[in-house]
Amino acid sequence: MTRIVVVSGGLGSPSSTRLLGDRLAEAVRRAAGTGPDGAAPVEGETVELRDLAVPLAHHLLTGFPGPELGAALDKVASADGIIAVTPVFSASYSGLFKSFFDVLDPDALTGKPVLIGATGGTPRHSLVVEHALRPLFAHLRAVVAPTGVYAASQDWGADGLAERIDRAGRELALLVRESAPGTAAPGATAPERESGAESGQGFPAESVQGFQVVPFAEQLAAVRAA
Question: First CA to last CA across the chain, in angstroms?
Fold first, then answer.
């Protein structure tokens, strides 16, 4: 079973940020399809950062997480993939969102597939996904899905958002599947994988913490063909 954890930085209840995270998680489940037994191979959990605001402040001051925050950090570290969504404040991610990833173990996201998203009141902040979120997760050495999703207030119910969500969900599902230890190229045997790596074709020989690295061109071609 593949575990996807949504980290939602939304402050309201209900929250458009949580809604975007839920929609992205559902897109990943659709893209993953069903297993041989008919069950969905993806299960999801959500970490609501607004519920962790006080424990986060205590951790930043003392260096020790409480039980609730510790459990949330463990969920993120042990997940197969992450969906990270934040509201926009002052043209960037929220302080609460940044604080959570500040206290996360620096190596927790190394090689882990991450899908990024943000919500805001105006389309003018759409570049926050590329100018703030993507550099943050690149610094944490995560494998960030090519498509980031920004949803302004007027995007809900309008043309285009559903398509972006579906595309991003397919990309994360593919990254999670390909990053699983022991994943082979479709139809390829182990010797074929090894020979392909040695010849510079197919899967490269290098890996990140046991994850086989798939060339981005192959990932993108597979997503477009899906």
Answer: 21
